[in-house]
Amino acid sequence: MTDDEALPHFVSDEIWDPAAKLVPSAAQLRYARASQWRLVWWRFRRHRLAVLSAFVLTILYLSILVSEILAPYALDTRHSDFIHAPPQRLHFFRDGAFVGPFVYGFDYRLDMDNLQRIYTEDPAKPEPLRFFCRGEAYRFWGLATGHRHLVCPAEGGTLFLLGTDRLGRDMLSRLIYGTRVSLSIGLLGVALSFALGITIGGFAGYYGGWVDSLSQRVIEIIRSFPELPLWMALSAALPVTWSPLLVYFGITLILGLLDWTGHARAVRSKFLALREEDFVQAARLMGASPARIVFRHMLPSFASHLIASATLAIPSMILGETALSFLGLGLRAPIASWGVLLNEALNINVVVLYPWLLLPVLPVLVTVLAFNFLGDGLRDAADPYQ
Fold this sequence. Notes:
Blueprint: H1 26-33, H2 36-45, H3 48-63, H4 67-70, E1 91-94, E2 97-111, E3 116-128, E4 130-140, E5 144-152, H5 171-207, H6 209-223, H7 227-236, H8 244-257, H9 260-274, H10 278-285, H11 290-298, H12 303-326, H13 338-342, H14 348-353, H15 361-381
Antiparallel strand pairs: 1-2, 2-3, 4-5
Helix pairs in contact: 2-15, 3-15, 5-6, 5-8, 5-9, 5-12, 6-9, 10-11, 12-15
């Protein structure tokens, strides 16, 4: 490029005033005035996979509030004429016309060579689904009797969208009831482990000295045992005479008591760095008690990190309960959970003949992945200034 072809140079005629202040834009003011939690929310919204996972988990946890209404049948309703019935396919069109959701009734015969029931759909027996209908009676949360269901089979018909088990019980209904148990045990277990971890790790990091040394030795002893065998040993020690409710709380207690060590160490490391900060020293000089300094000043400073850690810890609780129940060492019938349902598929020969018994593994995978994606999004959003 020659001098004649040089780009034109524009010079402003305005006088520059070094004392003049730059006026921030509305967006800059909104960002500068936002609270920490609002900044975390703005950053979290950009993680679309985490937002989708939060939506899925919200739907799952809301469903456990109305499990009785969502399930077509009661938990232990048996259909002796439909043992190990395969899933019924959902149809919407009949003879080329839209007639709404319906299923075809089953006909079955007994295969004497393999001693197996062979089920076939009968196109002459369409069974339309009923919605917001009156169906089997149930005890809503064990408190009140109800009859209303979201969906019901046709009068005199059946509705087995996920098939039935060896006792003729509807797998979909049992899966819906099992969701309440498996998801709630994860929340209760994490709540217990976080309460222990925050309390023990917080005071160990705040005081140091013999308090820190004692807590660290206890943590090292607990973590020296293999986790799964220790879970199995403690679960097997639960008395067989306990009621299902006591077993439920016993498994929750075992999962919570063995998972707090990692949270305690994370909180301790944070407190070792925070206890020398100016705001902690100022609170101590003003006469604040150690408990107030720990729970009022130090914990909120990294609460977003604790929330992200909690979302990543819940899947391990759910997998722990599922594994113990699958092995017959956790929850037991008549209570239903995802692990108890998968215990039906413990025999590989049964899985080959009735593969739909493995369907309870799908909600386990979806829930664990959703919690992991949600935890990743919260962890990235926990420090909005990065």
